[in-house]
């Protein structure tokens, strides 16, 4: 049975502030040893800004049922300061929550660890996790006020706990989950002109190998030129500038002398923090590459994302239709989301499973993909299938006659096994902009 997308209606904005029952503050072990400076994750800047005013905050998330913004405080006496700061720092996210839940408020919960503590402990573990093959992902679990560590089946979690203790990370700060390796996504669909986000692109990974298909993420301006963005792994070499050409509709159906719709001009990476750079020598905040568009007049329109007739929440079998809505064939990107929050409602448009909608589960997780790692990634529970790599992730889809959206990022992959099996992984806009400063989408 298919579950259709939630159709949202505007309502009056109201705010109530409630404090969840607590059992009293818990002491957190002090850090020992040498703790590195915090890594500057683009999507965490708002959380650090909040920590300057509310030092004891331990992360926050939206309750997907009530719309309430739940905020962990290690010191609940900081509630009034948090009440004043949150609308200033997370005002856009709060306003969005109250569209769907007019009575959504702010709930303060007793926290065990502060956000700054969790961030420092995570960064202290970075090198160890990069070098530990059984660890596949890690980050702050904002909904549980802990660090979450995704490990392969059979991993020795006690050895990880022992190492964490040596680095000053208390055992109670770690939560383990069994997971698998990140699974890339690929498939194909039809031709479109003008091009827009959400449609198929196709490339030759290497001579004499099968042609690969992905989804075009979004159109952009890069250095004043027409461009578009899709996943970095949708190219001949991931996180390596190799001038891959993207075709639309099909590489194999074009004449030999036909030109592509774009050529890769930026595929950025950086050195990992690992002390063994030969093990993980390429890192990034985004599974994203920029292509200079090689299209004629009328074939490239700014801001557009293809809109299908309907979608599913969070998934459906068979997948949602790929048919374009003839009356409203596209959405327009009018803004970007700089800070993704756990519990936010998000959508993706891709050639593998169409338009699907779900909620953010985790933010700012570091994910390994073989010899490559991505920091600051987001997990969400909307459906993704083969071909959805590079798909645009959107917020503020309100249904009905609405034609504008907020760009939140692009799809990188999905979790293959474990309790989080099927969760989508996407690179948020903040990470894409960190790797490609000056990129414009609206």
Description:
- The chain has 442 residues and is α+β, with helices and mostly antiparallel strands.
- The chain has two domains: 17-110, no CATH class; 195-435, Thrombin, subunit H (Beta Barrel).
- Helix content is 14%, strand content 33%.
- It has six helices and 25 strands.
- The strands form four sheets. Strands 20-21-22-25-24-23 form a six-stranded antiparallel beta barrel. A five-stranded antiparallel beta sheet has the order 12-13-17-15-14, with no helix packed on it. The chain has a four-stranded mixed beta sheet with strand order 1-4-3-2.
- Helix 1 runs antiparallel to helix 2 (79-89).
- The two termini are 38 Å apart.
- Residues 1-36 have low confidence and may be disordered.
Short structural description:
This protein has 442 residues and is α+β, with helices and mostly antiparallel strands.
The largest pleated sheet is described as: 6 strands, antiparallel, barrel
| CATH fold field value of the largest domain | Thrombin, subunit H
Shape: globular
Question: How many separate helices?
Answer: 6
* Termini gap: 38 Å
CATH superfamily of the largest domain: Trypsin-like serine proteases
Helix content: 10-25%
Mean pLDDT: 84
Reading off the top of the CATH hierarchy, the class of the largest domain is best stated as Mainly Beta
Share of residues in strands: 25-35%
Assign the CATH architecture of the largest domain.
Beta Barrel
Number of beta strands: 25
Task: State the strand order across the main sheet.
Answer: 20-21-22-25-24-23
As residue ranges, the low-confidence spans are: 1-36
Radius of gyration: 22 Å
| Category from helices, strands and their pairing | alpha+beta
């Amino acid at each position: 049975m298919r579950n259709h997308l939630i159709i949202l209606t505007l309502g009056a904005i109201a705010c109530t502030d409630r404090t969840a029952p607590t059992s009293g503050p818990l002491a957190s072990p002090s850090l020992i040893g040498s703790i590195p400076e915090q890594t500057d994750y683009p999507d965490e800047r708002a959380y650090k800004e909040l920590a300057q005013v509310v030092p004891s905050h331990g992360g926050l998330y939206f309750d997907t049922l009530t719309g309430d913004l739940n905020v962990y405080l290690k010191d609940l006496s900081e509630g009034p300061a948090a009440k004043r700061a949150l609308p200033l720092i997370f005002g856009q996210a709060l306003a969005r929550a109250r569209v769907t839940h007019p009575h959504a408020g702010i709930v303060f919960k007793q926290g065990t660890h502060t956000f700054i503590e969790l961030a420092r402990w995570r960064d202290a573990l970075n090198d160890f996790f990069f070098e530990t093959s059984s660890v596949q992902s890690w980050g702050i679990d904002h909904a549980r006020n802990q660090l979450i560590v995704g490990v392969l089946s059979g991993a020795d979690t006690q050895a990880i706990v022992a190492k964490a203790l040596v680095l000053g990370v208390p055992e109670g700060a770690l939560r383990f989950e069994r997971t698998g390796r990140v699974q890339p996504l690929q498939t194909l669909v039809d031709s479109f002109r003008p091009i827009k986000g959400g449609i198929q692109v196709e490339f030759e990974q290497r001579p004499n190998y099968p042609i690969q298909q992905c989804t075009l993420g979004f159109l952009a301006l890069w250095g004043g030129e027409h461009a578009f963005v899709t996943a970095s792994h949708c190219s001949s070499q991931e996180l390596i500038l190799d001038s891959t050409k993207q075709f639309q509709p099909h590489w194999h159906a074009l004449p030999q002398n036909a030109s592509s719709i774009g050529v890769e001009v930026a595929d950025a990476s950086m050195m990992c923090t690992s002390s063994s750079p030969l093990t993980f020598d390429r890192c990034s905040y985004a599974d994203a590459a920029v292509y200079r568009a090689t299209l004629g007049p009328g074939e490239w329109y700014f801001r557009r994302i293809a809109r299908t007739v309907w979608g599913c929440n969070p998934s459906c079998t068979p997948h949602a239709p790929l048919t374009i809505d003839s009356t409203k064939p596209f959405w327009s990107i009018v803004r970007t989301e700089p800070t993704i929050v756990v519990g936010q409602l998000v959508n993706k448009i891709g050639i593998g499973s169409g338009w699907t909608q779900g909620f953010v589960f985790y933010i700012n997780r570091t994910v390994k993909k073989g010899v490559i790692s991505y920091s600051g990634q987001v997990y969400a529970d909307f459906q993704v299938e083969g071909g959805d790599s590079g798909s645009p992730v959107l917020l503020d889809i309100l249904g009905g006659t609405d034609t504008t959206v907020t760009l939140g990022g692009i799809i990188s992959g999905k979790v293959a096994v474990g309790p989080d099996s099927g969760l989508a992984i996407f690179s948020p806009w903040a990470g894409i902009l960190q790797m490609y400063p000056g990129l414009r989408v609206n």
